[in-house]
Amino acid sequence: MGIDTWFDAETGKYHVNQYTGNESRTRVTQWETLDWVQEVQKRGAGEIVLNMMNQDGVRNGYDSGATEKSP
After folding, report:
1. Among the four residues 31, 39, 41, 67, which has the most C-beta atoms within 10 Å?
2. Which Pfam families did the record assign (predicted)?
């Protein structure tokens, strides 16, 4: 399962984004990232790959803040 997530600096929360391959269709979903991770685990996801959209391609390393509270 691949999850595209975006950190919103105003709210301090990570949100799942949908249709990220097409900029005109990309939208923020109702799901906070860790809530969605837990949901897909319940549904049987065997592997989860988080794509941190804010960090992608900027050479600053992985945003570990998104996973600090993960179960």
Report:
1. 31
2. His_biosynth (PF00977)
Q: State pLDDT tens for residues 18-67.
A: 999 888 999 999 999 999 999 999 999 999 998 888 766 666 666 666 66
Domain extent at residue 11: 2-55
* Whether the predicted model's global pTM rises above the 0.70 cut: yes
Alpha helices in the chain (DSSP H): 33-42
Q: Examine residue 29 and state whether it is found in any structural domain, yes or no.
A: yes
Residue 69 lies in a domain: no
Could you tell me if residue 71 is inside a domain?
no
Decide: 17 and 28 in contact? Cβ < 8 Å: yes
Spatial contact of 17 and 4, defined as CB atoms under 8 Å apart: yes
Cβ atoms of residues 1 and 48 within 8 Å: yes
